[in-house]
Write a structure and sequence with these properties.
Blueprint (H helix, E strand, L loop, with lengths): L10 H72 L3 H10 L15
Length: 110
């Protein structure tokens, strides 16, 4: 018997209400865990994308460096084959020492 100002529940109704509240709280907690998991996964993906971009830039820079080194190596190989030839000696004599052949004339401009 209940008094008019109070609202009473039966024992079964109270247990049902507690179960329903627990279910709702459980669903809310699961939802929060899911949202947090998604946020963490998204954060990891963003970080990995940044790292991939950084590594792509580094790879491009290293490829440019490698290409320059290969070009320099090719020039050295070419120079290596020319060393000791008359053409090479004449070029060094002209460019570095300023020498000329006996058939050439030097004009000095005042």
């Amino acid at each position: 018997m209940s008094s008019p100002g109070y609202f009473s529940y039966s024992k079964q109704e109270r247990q049902y209400k507690k179960r329903t509240e627990r279910n709702i709280i459980g669903k809310i907690v699961l939802g929060l865990i899911f949202v947090i998991s998604l946020a963490i996964a998204f954060s990891i993906i963003v970080d990995q994308n940044r790292e991939m971009e950084r590594l792509k830039i580094k790879e491009r820079d290293l490829q440019i460096e490698l290409d320059l080194a290969e070009m320099e190596q090719a020039e050295i190989q070419e120079l290596k084959t020319k060393i000791g030839t008359n053409e090479f000696i004449e070029r060094i004599a002209r460019d570095e020492l300023g020498l000329v052949t006996s058939e050439e004339y030097i004009f000095i401009d005042d």
